[in-house]
Design a protein that fits this description.
Length: 114
């Protein structure tokens, strides 16, 4: 997953602490997939584990800076939700095709050539 931390604040003063960004990635609001701390803004890419069970939900990316300001973004995803439909047709299609040929192909009294 790729995301970008944008911070346009000026950091020339000694009174401000150095930037620190804590990024947390959740699935469905409760399952935490990733947490990492970054010390500068920019574009980052992290690897997030994919659930093995069928699930759909909202992925929430939460960024907290050094003064505890929170910024969130979210998007909807589904994992392995429609795989069973494709698998069902892959199994059923050969049987349906053979049934079609047995029922509708013209019968012939000629033996098969060897």
């Amino acid at each position: 997953m790729q995301f970008e931390i944008v911070d346009r604040r000026k950091t020339t003063s000694q009174a401000h602490p150095s930037p620190r960004y804590t990024v947390k990635i959740f699935l469905g609001g409760s399952r935490q997939l990733h947490q990492e701390v970054f010390t500068y803004p920019g574009t980052f890419s992290v690897t997030v584990p994919c659930p093995t069970e069928r699930i759909s939900g909202v992925v929430v990316v939460e960024v907290t800076n050094e003064v505890m300001e929170k910024f969130t973004d979210s998007f909807s995803v589904s994992f392995n939700t429609y795989f069973y439909r494709i698998f069902k047709w892959l199994v059923a299609l050969p049987f349906l095709a053979m049934g079609f040929f047995v029922l509708f192909v013209k019968k012939s009294d000629l033996p098969l050539p060897l």
